[in-house]
Fold this protein.
Amino acid sequence: MAEDKISENIEEYLEVLYRNGSNGEQVSTTQLSKELGIAPGSVTQMLKKLENLGYIGYTPYKGATLTDEGMKIAQKITRKHRILEKFLIDVLKIKEENVHDQACEMEHTLSDEAERALCTMLNNPDVCPGNNIIPACNFDFESCNQCYSQKDFDQVIDRKFNLLSISELTSNSEGIVSFIRGSNELLEDISEMGIAVGCTLKYEANNNSAGDYYLVTIDDKELNIPIEMANNIFIRL
C-alpha cells in the first residue's frame, strides 16, 4: 500500500477542486484563487503542474476538472479532513468554529490505518459538522462488516476505482452499487429495498422540495431513497 508522498500544497488544491467539482464540474481559476487565498497567476502555474502530473484537466481561462487519479487523491484527503472534524467535535469537544483549521493541519499526516481506526470508533459516520458527506474509504470492501472482519491492516487492499454516494450524484447518473456503509440495521434496511452491491442503479433526481428523498431506478423499479440511506450507498459511475 506504499505510495509516493504527495505534497500538502497539491492535496489542498485537489481538495478544493473536489469540494467544488466532485461531479466533473469545471472549477474556475478565480474560484480557486479566492478559496485558497493565492494570487490567480500562481494558481494558473499550479494548475499547469497538476495537469502535467495527470491529476486534472485544465482549460486556460475556463478552469480545471479532476481526473480519475486526481479524484482518488482528493476524496482520500477530504475523507480524512471530515472524519477528523467529526472526531474533534464529538470526542474531543473542540469548539466547532475551531475544528476546520485544526483538521486542515492534521489531515496530511493522518495515516490510512489511523483513519480506519477513527472511522470504526465513530461508527462509520456519513456526514461531518456542516452536514458535508464523508466520502467512502478507498479500501476494497463492499460493506463495513467486511472491514471489521479484516483485522490485519497490512492485508487491506485499495479499491481500484472512485465512488460517489447517491446524494452526490447529478440527475440521470447511472452506475453500479459498489459499497454500502453503515450498521447491520442500515444494511438490512437497504437490502429490503432491493439494493445490493453489484446492481445497476440510475439516479433520477431529488424527489421533493426539501431534498431529503432521492428517486432511483433499479431493474425498472422506481424507489424513493431517504437521505440517511442515500448518503451511504456508493456508486461506481
